[in-house]
Amino acid sequence: MNIQEIAAKAKQASIMLAGTSSQLKNAALSAIAKALKDNSAKIIAANKEDLANAEKDNLAAPLLKRLKFDESKINGVCDGIESLIKIDDPVGKTTSALELNEGLELYKVSCPIGVIGVIFESRPDALVQISTLCLKSGNATLLKGGSEAANTNKTLAEVIAAASETAGIAPGWLGLMETRDDVAEMLNLHKSIDLIIPRGSNEFVQHIMTNTTIPVMGHADGICHVYVDSNADLDMAVNIAVDSKCQYCAVCNAMETLLVDKASAEKFLPMIKKTFDEKQVEVRGCQDTAKVIDVKAATEEDWKTEYLDMIVSIKIVDDLDAAIDHINKYGSGHTDTIVTKNTDSAEKFMDLVDSADVFFNCSTRFSDGFRFGLGAEVGISTNKIHARGPVGMEGLLIYKWKMKGSGHIVADFSENGKKYTHKKIDKTFKI
Amino acid sequence: MNIQEIAAKAKQASIMLAGTSSQLKNAALSAIAKALKDNSAKIIAANKEDLANAEKDNLAAPLLKRLKFDESKINGVCDGIESLIKIDDPVGKTTSALELNEGLELYKVSCPIGVIGVIFESRPDALVQISTLCLKSGNATLLKGGSEAANTNKTLAEVIAAASETAGIAPGWLGLMETRDDVAEMLNLHKSIDLIIPRGSNEFVQHIMTNTTIPVMGHADGICHVYVDSNADLDMAVNIAVDSKCQYCAVCNAMETLLVDKASAEKFLPMIKKTFDEKQVEVRGCQDTAKVIDVKAATEEDWKTEYLDMIVSIKIVDDLDAAIDHINKYGSGHTDTIVTKNTDSAEKFMDLVDSADVFFNCSTRFSDGFRFGLGAEVGISTNKIHARGPVGMEGLLIYKWKMKGSGHIVADFSENGKKYTHKKIDKTFKI
């Protein structure tokens, strides 16, 4: 099958999946977990092939570590599936109910989005997590993993598809894309695909966004800030800034720019410089910063840069307003933190900073689906339409309006004087 | 100011609007209503100019009627503003709250989307409705109305902007685009504009969608169906089909194709044909339909056509599954109705038809923001991302994640054994 056929089959399956019972979906999830364990030898063998190829290609050690998929990883994803089974089915939830007239009732009911195309990095765990999250939320999915993991992904997808389809899920709900050409072709299939979630570099996400009319949920950049207010606990500020920068610097929720209120600068900058030096963080600063501590000069370009490295830029700002302006101008709408003892300042910061995650007195590094208690995460969205910030299962749902009447027609209201009651009712949808 | 400057100013204003109190927004809405009444002579004079130009240009009578903006229309929009003042501020609502650890609390809080560009048809009432809806929901807005209403719109926008800004709303929150070039330029301003809502013809909406990377909320088409099941009350089915087609045929929620179960066809088709003939509806039918009643032959093209006219196509289908398949293949995801006495069939239809509005035993014409009790309507969305079906104020909101801690850092969890509690808390966000 080519991608067009795979996508059309997924679309067909997605219609059936939207009406599949929780019981059947959970039974399929159990079957998947069992099949992954039963086929662990086969999966690990496929992964060993990928590892051998990757070593031949001199893949960097951290990437090799992410690629490795062994018994303990299999147990890990199976634990994830077990917790997915336990949570409530998110489909079919009534979120509002209104009587329009006697016997005419309108319900807003959650439903799956349809077919979701996900492009993810080399970690094969992601294939299991994303596909099972899609299944639980009633979505069909087309997946493309990193080419380094091609054998592992193929085996995993086969095992998952076979087990779920034997359990009664509509065939074709899980499609695997294997090449970059497959991905390029997918971008044109707006009749079959409802949402694309690209995970990867900023350039890659931008590339996807500009080359498709299908809605894309992706984060473009993670330029996160910590703002140390005039009225901050400076020891706390050091702790938070260091955690935000250094706890894991290669990720999107790490701090890139530290904004320091001019009233705090003289005392705070030497404190943070000392810790950054110990941690071997390269510090770049604005002209005012350079008057207080020894730093490389930061340029305009620094404020726009996601280093993803042990580099930080520091800017002294006049006040809270200037900090908010800087973040809204240079930030990427991801995660920004204020450190302050002044709750009015915190409130203003959290209202006016136009980012998905706005934090008060805690590290930017908390911006994460697991830490947010969302369970598995399909990604972090800097979109402002639909879903924002860490996205769990809720981000894979939309709603439909279901209305039931007993022959109601509009003419009776428009021409014959019938009135809309618009009375809220406390009911969940049921025919 | 050019459009780029107007948009940049709107962006700036949107930041302030996001933090503006309900009290101030409501005071501004009151001031707007008062100013509209105080300036009614000026508004009506501007409208008379537009009407005179439109008559010179031989604008059709129904369009002239929509263009007219007199004392009673002014009172109408002011009533709308009064009801907008009364409803709860939708901004700042906590929709979920979770303790991550002692003193570390995560809140999901509703917030405005930002700057919304709306392109609407000639009706000047729309300018007042949309701008006040945006103001109440904390969004800045750039508006482009029909060129026939240029003078009326300019006067209305000036009155609204002046009154609201005097009341204390950030200047520039309401920008007016006046030419097609302005709209073309807006499509490139993805840094300043967060969402575009185009209202107008299908071609126009498609044109906008393919020419911008800004998210677009628009309905592409309204190809709505009524399906008469094997087990339908046929008198009810006639009523619903006639209302869906004829009550107002030029609108997106009117029925275009009538699907009839083969078990109902022989009895139902002569009944509906009689009424359609009385109403002078042109009936086109599939081959099987032509065996029962006298119709023009429908072609493949008919199933894909939004007539927006007194024309209907009829297809006989084998069963419920075939009806669902037809709708998912040819429909536009707008509004579809099943007429049946069988609740299992209704449930299946409503689960598997992939449309924004799925109705049971009532007319497709109910698909409308006012009838749905949403108050003013910004449009009807056939998107599946973000908002779907009739869109009221809720569709102008998104959320942010607000988290408050007391110095919490990730390292304590990742390296020092601190545990996430992930305990639901029953609190609304407050610093």
Give the low-confidence spans of chain A.
none
DSSP strand tally of chain A: 17
- CATH fold descriptor of the largest domain in chain A: Aldehyde Dehydrogenase, Chain A, domain 1
From the alpha carbons, calculate the radius of gyration of chain A and give it in angstroms: 25 Å
Distance between the amino and carboxyl termini of chain A = 39 Å
CATH class of the largest domain in chain A: Alpha Beta
The most extensive interface, with participating residues per chain, is:
A-B, 79 and 80 residues
Describe the biggest sheet of chain A? 7 strands, parallel
Please indicate the percent range of residues of chain A in DSSP E strands (runs of 2 or more).
Answer: 15-25%
- Helical content of chain A (DSSP H or I, runs of 4+): 40-55%
Describe it for me?
The structure is a homodimer of 431-residue chains. The first copy, chain A, is α/β, with parallel strands linked by helices and 431 residues long. The first copy, chain A, folds into 2 domains: 3-218 and 383-396, Aldehyde Dehydrogenase, Chain A, domain 1; 224-366, 3-Layer(aba) Sandwich (Aldehyde Dehydrogenase, Chain A, domain 2). Chain A has 16 helices and 17 strands. Chain A has helices spanning 3-18, 22-38, 40-56, 61-67, 71-86, 125-136, 150-167, 180-186, 202-210, 234-246, 262-278, 287-292, 300-303, 320-330, 343-352, 411-414, and strands at 94-101, 104-112, 115-119, 140-144, 174-176, 195-198, 224-228, 255-261, 282-285, 296-297, 311-317, 335-339, 357-362, 379-381, 389-391, 397-408, 423-424. In chain A, helix 10 crosses helix 11. Strand 16 (397-408) of chain A pairs parallel with strand 13 of chain B.
